[in-house]
Amino acid sequence: MYAFEIERPSTIADAVNALKSEDAQALGGGQTLIPTLKQRLAMPASLVSLTGIGEMQGVCLGDAGEVCIGGATTHATVAREAAAHYPGLAGLASHIGDPAVRNRGTIGGSLANNDPSACYPAAALGSGATIITNVREIAADDYFQGMFTTALDEGEVITEVRFPVPEKANYQKFVQPASRFALVGVFVAKYADGVRVAVTGASEEGVFRWSEAEAALSGDFSAAALDGLSVPADGMISDLHGSSAYRAHLVKVITGRAVTAAG
Amino acid sequence: MPKDSGIGASSKRREDVRFLTGDGNYTDDINIYGQTYVHFLRADVAHATINSIDVSAAAEMPGVVQIFTGADFEAVGGIPCGWQVTDRHGEPMQEPKHPVIAHGKIRHVGEIVAAVVGESLAQARDAAEEIILDLTELPAVVDMKDAATGGPKVHDDLTSNVCYDWGFVEENKGAVDEAIKSAAHVTTLELVNNRLVANPMEPRVAVGEYSRSDDMHTLHTTSQNPHVIRLLMGAFVLGIPEHKLRVVAPDVGGGFGTKIFHYAEEAFCTFAAKAVNRPVKWTSTRSEAFMSDAHGRDHVTKIELALDADNNFTAVRTETYANMGAYLSTFASSVPTWLHGTLMAGNYKTPNIYVNVKAVFTNTVPVDAYRGAGRPEATFQLERVIDMAARELGVDPIALRRQNFVTEFPYATPVAVEYDTGDYEATMAKLEEIADMGGFAARRAESEKNGKLRGLGVNCYIEACGIAPSNLVGQLGARAGLYDAATVRVNATGSISVMVGAHSHGQGHETSFPQVISEMIGIPEDQIDIVHGDTSKIPFGMGTYGSRSLAVCGSAMVKAAEKVINKAKKIAAHLLEASDADIELKDGTFTVAGTDKSVAWGDVTLAAYVPHNYPLEDIEPGLEETAFYDPANFTYPAGAYACEVEVDPETGKVTIERFSAADDFGNVINPMIVSGQVHGGIAQGIGQALLENCAYDDDGQLLSASYMDYTMPRADDLPFYSVDHSCQTPCTHNPLGVKGCGEAGAIGSPPSVVNAVIDALQSGGKNVTHIDMPLTPARVWDAMNNA
Predict the structure, then answer these.
(1) Which of B125, B707, B776 sits opposite A241 (nearest CB)?
(2) Of B271, B390, B439, B653, which is the most buried if we count CB atoms within 10 A?
(3) Cβ of B695 and A240 within 8 Å?
(4) Interface confidence (ipTM) of the complex
(5) Tens digit of pLDDT for each residue in B607-617?
(6) Which tens digit of pLDDT belongs to each residue from A111-150?
(7) Which top CATH class is A5-49?
(8) Alpha carbon of B783 to those of A58, A249, B450, B769: distances in Å?
(9) Range B142-193+295-401: architecture per CATH
(10) C-alpha to C-alpha distance for B584 and B570, rounded to whole angstroms
């Protein structure tokens, strides 16, 4: 780790201000950033910790019944406090990493990092969530722009994420054996106007929607509706833990399991 | 009634109190006034010529004490290899110099290129970033067969990358070839024994100290065998005589073989402590451990098993490529040869066996012993090929094994060892009972109802432990004796300290060794302590590896205790005015046979140290004896293991549903500790079979260099085990009748796991005959879909 300054603002305005200084870096729960720093793979001049900002904490219900989660809310809090409102989302949060990760890692941090194997991007994209920042609202469909790439501008902070609550939803994760990140994770959500299917872990482009499955499931929300569909292996990640063909195959299997589990 | 103390009691592990409450004293807990810290600059390319190293800017950085490069170690010896193997043609193996710091050339990712000693670790690390390396990268060679057949040369001064081409027993090759040619059936299997990283919980640490006033060097290090380190480093690397070098290995958090070896970092810290005249400390990061701890296994083998028309094994022939990595680690050369070829008979009376091993240098981290060392590789090949033969012949794999068991002992194998005792039928029968094989069909039906495939896999194993008879291993190329030693020091009031050459780093010696002494003398276990891990305190013993501690060092302890008891009987005879031939010792009391005259242990020991009424003309005061024990043979633990798996046909994921182990360890001192050793060994065996894989790319970059990509077994990967060690054929040649249990689980478990998965897939109609370990979901799915 190289030396850096640390700022602990208590308001969004102060955080945004602090992030304007040169080589400042926002720090959520630090579950990716701190290991990166320890390996000396990043050299920020200052870290701006977002976890002390009260207005970015907690889970509540919005006027339209959507679940609103502060950007600095930990996975453990979401698992606990969203359970009654959006069990599919809470279930996903309750299986991210291990207890230590869940008690430090935050939803804003996860979405800002957009790790191609992270769980939260699947929930956000699969729910058609809205990512609220200090300057604007971004639809999930516009937010994710490829592996570790998002619509966020320099210094922009995710203050809140709003999830419309579906009729049914479920997230299934087939884990990479070593890291236990998603080798393939699929979030399915059935809304009145259709089904959304978001896949993480599999694609070289990061989280994506499987539109053929969405169309089929919108007509018949059952695993059998996926019969005959397949995902092309092209563009899927191929590494020590699985070929692109294997990942493509798993997308279908895991989607079916998520649909079945959603009931 | 189970005993509550002494031999056979499951005494609670006394050392766990400090381990579990944070009171352990590990090497990293040692901090010495004035100590400096070393950061090693390690190679990030696998193969390169070092044109120059410019440390001038780095040397000006704050807190830098001194920077070392390979040039500073030119006058110093290389890291030695402890075993010289002679090849098929009678030539000694090729043995390249293994420098403490790379000089002239880099040969693997992770090799030390420079060392910065600083006031703080952060300062040393900062300075290391200012070192300018001028390298010319060279093509790397990673694949063993490429290396053996003319890929880039790892060492320019060797004739090739082949360290040795070993044949065993070379004289039998013709007969074996003939037996295979004339066989009724030959099963051939090509397989990989995957490369592993040991990953002990505690990474390696070294702290070097030097005292100018008495020219004394001290090395605190994470070692399984401090005297071996003192011998190798003192005599071969740094030229320090034994009396000026103390090596201390305090509490060590797991070894698994990888802490046997003498490492460059130990020599560096010892050397540098004198050079800078201050203590020098190094603590490995986990990332460094992945690229500097010796790796394990990494064999590629073709095995042929020949059978006659009645399914009797008639011959085994193997050809193995064994990866040495870039340099020869301490015992690297012995692992694929004498620890592997000698076990190719397994539990079977195969008359003709020939083993060929080509040990090969590659641009990878050195490979050496890892829990089992050679014996898991032998067991895996043999037990896989037997299973495959049973399938090809359509016979029951257990019946095929039974038919070929060695049943008469002693049994001289065609691969140079003599099994003293054993009962393979007994462990197989016990296995059938504890694994509930009768219930398998119903369990399979239940799994199939849930859309899963279920398989049952079985294997036997035998290992050679208690290494080793020194005269024998000397003939085979060992450069050290492999006896062990113990000193039993009885204190005036009767308590006892036992100084042992064995080293405990998880094995529970501090509990089990006193149980033996307690049994012999009849005093409570808590009156006896074990002292280990410090060359200034313990006699010259060779340490702990190869499941040898109790069989070899324990035997030395028994011999020393017998000497103590004999002397104590003489003192008691004097005190009781009787003949020492009439003195009996029981429950801590000496009695004159056939009388009620007695004297307590404590009164005798007190007399030894306060010899007012004492036969000084006949015996010396004091009560302390040392014994060295050199075993007459190896010990041969053996057993039978069974694994039951479920395979998810949609994803290829394997889950272990049941695992049973029936072992024959001879006599057992502490059944709880033995079970724990078996549990841990099985966890590592399952890890190898399903999870762990050390992978390099073609450029010699380590792909599985962290826990993000290297899969360690976790609790939820493992089932509850059913283990049994009630089948006991005591070793015939050591005083305790013990055989060793530390490696059995790791040796005995991988084949049954793979056999079970193949069984499951075949039950689902998949024509899969073999999958190379680890059987990850992706590999199983690939195999199913390519079948």
Answers:
(1) B776
(2) B271
(3) yes
(4) 0.96
(5) 999 999 999 99
(6) 999 999 999 999 999 999 999 999 999 999 999 999 999 9
(7) alpha beta
(8) 47, 14, 22, 9
(9) 2-Layer Sandwich (3.30)
(10) 11
